[in-house]
Amino acid sequence: MANHRKEVTTLKSLSKRQWTKIAAVLATMGLLAGAGFASRSFYASQHPAVQVTSYSATDSNALEVSRGADREDLRGADANTSYVTVKINGKSRVVLGTNFTDVKSVLDAGDITLEPNDSVAPALNSKVDESTVITINRAGADLETTDSPIAFNTVKKETAALPQGQEKVETEGQAGVMETTSIVTRTGDKVVSSNIFASFVKTAPTDKVILVGTGSTASNNSGSAGNPGSSASASIGTTVPAGDMQQWAHDYMLSNGYSESDFSATVYIISHESGWRVNAMNPSGAYGLPQALPGSKMSTEGEDWATNYQTQLKWFWQYCAGRYGSVQGAYSYWLGHHNY
Hints:
The protein is α+β, with helices and mostly antiparallel strands. It is 28% helix and 25% strand. InterPro entries: DUF348 (IPR007137), G5_dom (IPR011098), Lysozyme-like_dom_sf (IPR023346).
């Protein structure tokens, strides 16, 4: 009878040559596993996990949350706020809201108007959640980026290191840069439509700082003026209002119990956050003069929060008082963190 039992190779029956091959295979596998682990570790170190966050317009790292009670999540202080990413011709922007039901509701909240020839995916009536990415392709439209200047302010700081009434320029002023991206449709050389997609501070302005002497001639001659800026460096100074918005803010604050230093702190933060553009719109979803996140938070001060600078500033002052105790408290935090 034929023997159909399968011959089983045992460890004892292996030859020396077979043992050598097995050792070589195991060594190779070990090297590959080690290389894979090292490669994964290298990739992780080079490409750390990115957490979705919001940020100040001037935070180059874009990793600090501003104007939200929670500084790690785009939802900010309102747990009901959700966010959806919208891409138009490849450019991304986050739209925040509280009542998103479908694609159309997101576009409405983001004030994104569709053109007749736009293609949208998913469809307008499709349900959305925070994993949804709405893609809009606009034929014949280009994303155009322009820069515009942000005026600098003049700040006067008193110092006893200079004789009474004497002035000295400590820092020359320099205009900042506001970057605006618009969706522009043209027919030939004629602009048919132009809609702002994002607008934020690219480079913050540098204030012109003037030292104003409060000391006596005798103290000046004794050598105390060797470094007149040192005695004034800790002072926030008095800022000269520039433009109608700042003039209103100055007059309103002084008539409502605020100080000149509070106004200087206001000007500094708003200049760095939005360049004093009422409709400044960061890709993170932050909006307006104070870059509120989301902008709809400012509705607590008025339904015209999207267009009225007075409403936006009143919300800003209330926010600073509630979170930092004062406007100057927010200013101190901003200096250390470049957001507030």
